[in-house]
Amino acid sequence: MNTLAVATGNSNGAIAPNARRLLWAGWVAILAAGMGFGIRGGIFYNWGEEFGFTAAQLGAIGGAGFSGFCFGVIIGGLICDRVGYGKLIIFAFALHILSVVITFTASGAGAYASLYWGMFIFAYANGTLEAVANPLVATLFPDHRTHFLNILHSGWPAGLVVGGAIGLLLGDRLQWDWRVQLSCYLLPTLLYAGMFLGQYLPKSQASQQGLRLGEMLKDIGILGALVACYLLALFARNALGMPAPLSYGLAGGLLFIVAAMTRFALGSLLLFVLFIAHALLGAVELGTDGWIQNITGNILSSEEGKFLFVLTSATMFALRFCAGFLERGIGLSPVGILLACAILACVGLNLASGIVTFGGAMAALFVYATGKTFLWPTMLAVASDRFPRTGAIAVAIMGGIGMMSAGLIGTPGLGYAKDRFAAEALKAKDPALYEQYRASTPSRFLGFQQVYGLDGKKLGEVQAQFNQERSALAEANTVPLSPQARLVHEASVAGDRKTLKADMFIPASLALIFLGLLIYFTSLHGYRRASFES
Fold first, then answer.
1. Among candidates 414, 416, 436, 442, which has minimal Cα distance to 484?
2. d(Cα 26, Cα 532) in Å, to the nearest integer?
3. In 3-state terms, what secondary structure has residue 443?
4. What distance in Å separates the CA atoms of residue 526 and residue 528, rounded to the nearest whole number?
5. What integer pLDDT is reported at residue 51 of this predicted model?
6. What secondary structure does DSSP assign to 138-207, as a single string?
7. Running DSSP on this structure, what letter comes out for residue 329?
8. In terms of DSSP H, where are the helices of 84-110?
9. Measured between alpha carbons, how far is 376 from 160 in angstroms, rounded to an integer?
């Protein structure tokens, strides 16, 4: 137990008297990020219908909402102890305001660019705030990191709940413009700024000990930097349009700089594995979150999809307060928690791919939500426990890798899968009808074959007709869905189901990795928090 914690009479091992206020200030900041994410997922349909985007284009816009986070959290993690947490919070607040201004300029041919960069700036602000909040909470509660990092990150699903509720009320019920819905996240933005104002923010133990940046990077080394640099190369190619030689050349140059700063230290193999796992985790958790409203709303109805999103997010919010019980009450190690969660997430996605009724969807998504609940914050806790000499940097890079993977692999990958599987289903049923609904812009993803999905505007019209036909409030003179339109809708649903099936293999891979880590720690006589001197 930390001596300062004893002196202040804090039974949770907090090292500062204002620890609780800082915890909840960080919680509100992450709530703002979750609200923006949840609202955006609900208005994907509006953007596709208004601007005629394909699923791949929408996935790329959603991906910018993750890629920007990576730059914010990594750059913020590298400089936070030098620049100061307070200045980074002010900077993030300004970016949150700027992102709204840019997003609201979306119109005509420039709509894609406005939405893409508006989301990127929004995500950069979120990443900057998390670069502050994660190491801050890990420093404030050194003896209970798994518990309090899970509490901190319960702000994310809480934001998703509020964002989803805004979509249900202001979007579906009141039919308010998507711009009004999106601007609602500015309310918690103002609140977190006020909560952080005037507070003392302690630095990480590594920074207090005066370690230089090169020393903090040694455990990350060449192996850890390799993961981050590869994703940065993908960003340069996919988002900035750089030629492959230039993007990989820049990434290689950055890798060399890290290697030189650490005197060519290879880095920890364990941390390298954790980085790989977090890349997979970001792709499946946040990538799926970005599409799940759209997918379940298409299979069932738009309103039911949003309600399910709120329900699963509320499940995550409640369960994230139970991490301490799982660890200290039941006796699960953080790695044991990760293994159990990966298995549940795999089962949940498999069940979700076959949903037919709203009740069945609730059960399937409850399993999936339970599985993904503890993954992200517990991974951060493991990195903080095992690599204290990295200060704020390891958790910052880990968060950046997860978000970058979600933005470059998870969200656009699922968008590509939706386009591909829906196109294949419609082409198999009626090739001529497929040509009629085929998008003019091809969908691409990494090295996979390009495909032509279904046109966003035309598909949106079909989905609107289908939802109207199913609604009990539909007028008596509503024209029934034509056989051709029904085929298009069925193909879209088939594509969604197959997308969830493919998505299931990511948590299955994570389960194998965590099983290996559990065996590794068992061979070391159990999971333990590493000391700063070791």
1. 436
2. 25
3. strand
4. 6
5. 85
6. HHH-TT-HHHHHHHHTTHHHHHHHHHHHHIIIIIIIT---HHHHHGGGHHHHHHHHHHHTT---PPPHHH
7. I
8. 85-103
9. 15
What's the whole-model pTM score? 0.83
Q: How far apart are CA 373 and CA 24, in angstroms?
A: 19
Asked whether the predicted pLDDT for residue 278 surpasses 70, the reply is: yes
Identify whether the C-beta of residue 31 lies closer than 8 Å to the C-beta of residue 155: yes
- Domains along the sequence of the chain with CATH: 17-220+268-422+498-523 (1.20.1250.20)
For the beta carbon of residue 255, count every other beta carbon within 10 angstroms: 18
Contact status, residue 307 vs residue 429, Cβ threshold 8 Å:
no
Would you say 384 and 260 are in contact if contact means Cβ atoms under 8 Å apart? no
416-458, pLDDT tens digit by residue?
A: 898 899 898 989 988 888 888 888 888 888 778 888 888 777 8
Cα distance from N-terminal residue to C-terminal residue, the chain: 18
How far is residue 43's CA from residue 31's CA, in Å, rounded to a whole number?
18
> What element of type H or E holds 243?
none
The residue assigned the tokens 């954790």 is: 274
Q: What's the whole-number mean pLDDT along residues 337-358? A: 95
- The structure tokens 């009808």 sit at 433
- Nearest alpha-carbon partner for 369 in 285, 265, 256: 285
User: Rounded to the nearest 10 degrees, how much is the dihedral formed by the CA atoms of 180, 365, 157, 415?
Assistant: -60
pLDDT tens digits along 213-248? 888 889 999 999 999 999 889 888 877 788 999 999
